[in-house]
Amino acid sequence: MTDGDAAAFTHLGSTVRSALSERGFSTPTAPQRLAIPPLAADRDTLVIAPTGSGKTETAMLPVFDDLVEDPPEGFGALYVTPLRALNRDMRDRLEWWGETLDLTVDVRHGDTTQYQRGKQAEDPPDVLITTPETIQAMLTGERLREGLEDVSHVVVDEVHELAASKRGAQLSIGLERLRELAGNFQRIGLSATVGDPEDVGQFLTGGRPCEIREIDVGSNVSVTVREPEITEADERLAGKLMTQADTASHVRLIRDIVDERESTLIFVNTRQTAEALGSRFNELDLPIGVHHGSLSKEARIEVEDAFKAGELDALLCTSSMELGIDVGRIDHVVQYQSPRQVARLLQRIGRAGHRTDEVSEGTIVTTRPDDTFEALAIARRARAGEVEPAAIHEGSLDVVANQIPGLVQSQGAIFLETAYEIVTRAYPFRDISEEQFRDVCSELHRNRIIWFDEGEDRLESSGGTWQYVYANLSMIPDEETYEVHDIASSRQIGTLDERFVVNFASPGEVFIQRGEMWRIAEVDDDEGTVKVSPIEDPAGEVPSWIGQEIPVPCPVAQEVGEIRAAAEPQFETGADAAAVARDFTHRYPGDEHTLEEALGQLERHVETGTPVPTADRILIEREGRSVVVNACFGHTANETLGRVLSALLGQQTGSSVGLETDPYRIELEVPSSVATSDVLAVLEETDPAHVETIVELGLKRSDALAFRLAQVSAKFGALKRWQGSGRMSNERLLKALEDTPMYAEAIREVFHEDLDTKRASAVLERIQSDDLEVVTTRGRTPVGSGGRSAGTELLAPENADASVIKTVRERLQDDRVVLLCTHCTEWLSKTKVKRVPDQPECPECGSTRIAALSPWAEDVVQAVRAEEKDEEQVELTQRAYRGANLVQSHGKQAVIAMSARGVGPHNAARIISKLRENEADFYRDILEQERQYARTKSFWD
């Protein structure tokens, strides 16, 4: 080892250096060489390096050194991780150092026993490994607070993950509360690569000076993008898996990659894909485990241990494996479909290889042109170090509301000015005004969470303070989950979120979990359980898991547009896809076949004579009621533009406008009266300064905002856990809370998480200044047709098989329906769909104009029967009449169609108009409409 290499360790004392030699650490890793000097000098430091590069020891060696030199009486150091599973790993890694250096290391989190907690309060360990939520609890315990007074170091692991969440915002205030007890302490952050290291550093330190020590990860990452060729073997495999040949080729390619290595992580973007792909590997009896957050803790530990022991060749996982859970050495990382973001790719691929002098190797397996171009852009940006910022939550008022009772509980009576000063020292809250802070205190007072003496500006505890603090240690939203139990063995196999259970889970339905197929036998709402039995049927519904699609950032989508722009003139001059592909292999890490497959779409598009949508050109295409605005601006900007379009077009026509977006398209379902020129006019005439206002007005009646508002108001103590059921409940909630800090926070959160009004406004400005070209065409184009629906082959078969159709038919026939005569309005009957006659008629007046309504549609019945109707009742009555006309014309078939989820008179008419001779096709059309409704219902009133 050279003197230069060893120099980092010379900053440590002899005891720690001896331990290093005993442990076999002869040469510092790259992060240790960079970061140990400032850390040993007690400076606040952010260390940015890949997982497995020695970050933990980098942070802890100087901390151990300090604790050996100056043993603490209370807690000497806190090591904060965002996952309990990381706590387990950290204790395993740090215990040896503790034993060797005569320092105590312990873990504390929600599952720690009462006995162990008592021991820690009596005799605090030198190093405590814990979670952000447990720190909140510790700050309120009298004996624990005494132990915390001695803290001299706090290490925050995976700080990039926390910086982008409300959990992190809560922790940032928690660290300022800890500073009130312990005085200044050293803050050390361990992070994956981020685009804004200075901001993350400021988040860590509360705006104080922070040393940044960063390893260039991109130069040590080797990524290949591949879309497999379909072979005869894939055709045979497709028959075995009962899937399409292209899906079979993906399975085969991943299997081949796994066979060539000893240990592989296979990352996917959603739990649906993990389960669907896992079921394919399960069919082939391959030693590949499934790992994601909806599996039980026991199931996750079981596959982690099996993978680490070499019993599994690969682990199929979601973001659950992005963080540093120790599963042993990883040779290679497969990313199935585009990773969507540069930071995510670097973090995932960075898990392969365990020291930074090794190149981390990975393969992105892509499935369609958008996917391929996006993956190529992300891979190039990763090598160039063009990473997204962490997106810190700025000024979340529900976090402020969460922390004020904690301050009062732990410190007793406190002046508002003092509390405000502590909270605004935390970086995400530096811009909160005193007026906003006062409004939050007033709301907490109204809800009897604290006592706010406005005369003396003093905050005190009330009868509800203690209960609130301990019920709200976490900022993770309180959403109910159902445990899934195997009915034969009674073992728990995972969880389903409440929204999936309510919308989809009824006896007989089929879904995938742990890569296996299950049929629902019973749903127990009181116990919160779903009882299931395993089946061999290879087709079924995939659970609609908690969590949203990973948003593709605007710069990535723009680069996809630039790739299209570079290819278009080559096709126009006669080059074919193979020739253009050869040219692109010099710029992007894909083979000729992969590039040729993706470029084939652009070649076909150019052949139509229609301009290609690029970074500097929007293409609007129209077919029937479907309008596609091809726009390369990423998820959140397109979502915002889509909401502006749907709101203004809906306002013009008085009708709902359906909306679905992806990073490259805004798809609208418009009334037939809307012309393409109307869509263009919105883009050309809407004032960019009004975008935020238009979107907010559109949100006011949305379920998405009501759901967020329910979660936010729970943190203010305004509502016990809110359970809305239907539009009226949502409207009442929104109206009741409109002028409160809770409403302001719910709006802020929706804008922060889902929308980008600044970019959307900038797009309108570019259009209106002729900097951005907009062209229109009739009919669908190859690029416009290549959206999300083109990439769902793994989630469900294109044609649901007979067993699924049978399940749908039985479910609809067993559904209850309310029949109401719209002629005399007197006769009303509640029955099951299967008991409805082929042509229902009123026994009172003989009319065949019978409305078929859902059992909970009392408001529609009241509206039809009301002599004087308000505006909403008129709308409900007209809807009932449209349904009655359909029943009069088509009898029981109309009743069946309208019993389906999200199928009203308009969509039922569309289904019936197809005149299906085959009954299975009729139910297949209904199922497709139900799926479409599930995908898009958050955008409809």
TrEMBL record:
Annotated keywords: ATP-binding, DNA damage, DNA repair, DNA-binding, Helicase, Hydrolase, Isomerase, Nucleotide-binding
Q: Which SUPFAM superfamilies match?
A: P-loop containing nucleoside triphosphate hydrolases (SSF52540)
Question: Its Gene Ontology molecular function terms?
Answer: helicase activity
User: In its keyword annotation, does this UniProt entry include DNA repair?
Assistant: yes
> Where does the Helicase C-terminal domain lie?
253-398
SMART domains given for it?
A: DEXDc, HELICc
Q: Which PROSITE patterns match?
A: DEAH_ATP_HELICASE, HELICASE_ATP_BIND_1, HELICASE_CTER
- What family is this protein classified in? Belongs to the Lhr helicase family. Lhr-Core subfamily.
Report the PANTHER family cross-referenced here: ATP-DEPENDENT HELICASE LHR-RELATED (PTHR47962:SF5), ATP-DEPENDENT HELICASE LHR-RELATED-RELATED (PTHR47962)
What's the protein name? Answer: DEAD/DEAH box helicase
